[in-house]
Amino acid sequence: MTLFGLSFFVLALCYFSTVYSRPAGAHLRNMDSFIRAVEQVEDSNPGRSPLALVRALRRTAGHDDEMTIHFLGVSYNLSDAEVLETAILNASSFSFFDKAIHHIVTDYGEERGVVLAPDGTTVALAPLLLGIESGLKAKIEGTPAVGIFPLTLGRTLGLSFLSLKDFPPSFRLGPKGCWDNTDRPKLFKLYRPATLATDAVINGGMDGAILGMDLSNLPASEEPQALSEVLKGYYGFILREGQGLDAVTRHVSPRRREISRSILEPLDLHSQVMETLTLVWKLEKTEWFALDTAVGKAVKDGLQAFVHKYWDCPQIIPRCQWGAKAHQGTPIPLSLPLQFLYVHHTYQPSSPCLSFPNCSRDMRAMQRFHQEDRGWADIGYSFVVGSDGYVYEGRGWKHLGTHTRGHNSIGYGVSIIGNYTATLPSRHTMDLLRHRLVQCAVDGGWLAANFTIHGHRQAVNYTSCPGDALFSEIRGWEHFGE
Predict the structure, then answer these.
(1) E strands of 329-446, at which residues?
(2) How many Å apart are CA 147 and CA 153, to the nearest integer?
């Protein structure tokens, strides 16, 4: 890293984190716990506005940096916020708020200020709440919500791209990580050294942008819901069998990638990030950073990596998150890119899975069957698609699967959970495979651009997989080969 890059990285850290190694507390770090803590404060302060509450939470977390103040004003001289901060300080949930909102990464790779959402993804609360506050402020004051993108994503992306501009663009984002226990999450550990834009920070930023825009666009006659209700509506939905996400018209967390894309892609993201950086430098009196001629290219390359990783690709739930057992033996690497993609249905489990707990349970059951009954080294599939809006990692992109006899080395095996002999998966589930996972694979160099899709039955003569209904459907897909 150049001296310039090192200086920029140190400055950027001032915005988002203090790195230290004091052990975290014992509070459960999930969205449900956070919402319950918010409800406790709301119940003890009836009639207070949600805007006052998010301002009080900002003050509690110490998030009054120069740029936040520029867009949202200071939190410490607002009377409502002072009353609510007292309620937070007196509440038994204070310790939770104190640890839950302030985002840091410790020197041993623990990411704090993040919570496990009910859908199995991890969300940083700081950018989420800044987006909500920006939207509420715009709604109440009747002004444009100009701070939403800079505070939720623009600043984070810009600083991450520049602080690591001497590294390949893909290394300027992420990483992801895993929880110690998804039933009782207390510790979230990253896979590798953190950038400023970890996956959890990006998730929180996308969610904050979505909810902030939703709130800012409420009709003049409609009052905003309580903060807890806003969060429950977005994260606490229940999908119905036979409908899945196809029937959901409101904004919910499993659709964050497609929704945030629809909101933000029409903007000139490069210009938006550059304008955000210019504002950062002005407020911090560090305009000399703009003299670096490589800034524009760093932002351009970084945004291309962002679009590929977070918009083109679907969210893939990693093995550690669904509770996978270790691969037995040494995984065999694939020779990439592969030429084929083989579509399966699981048959058993026979019903679509509609939630992270259920899909995870199905993944563990299939792995147990494949390892213990079939004697395979691991779950056979490369990836599995749930009807909860997510793809689940099996053998993954790099390792040989056991899914299509005689063809495992030349193609990926992707299965959709359920029996599709007579019925089809939801349209959203099929699109995850047909469009999102496929595009991700081609753009990532895992699958050849001229790849061929086959149903499992076409490669072996002893199965009706992926079911008559699904096979009839995929015959109309681009890249299908007879």
Answers:
(1) 338-345, 383-385, 391-393, 411-416
(2) 10
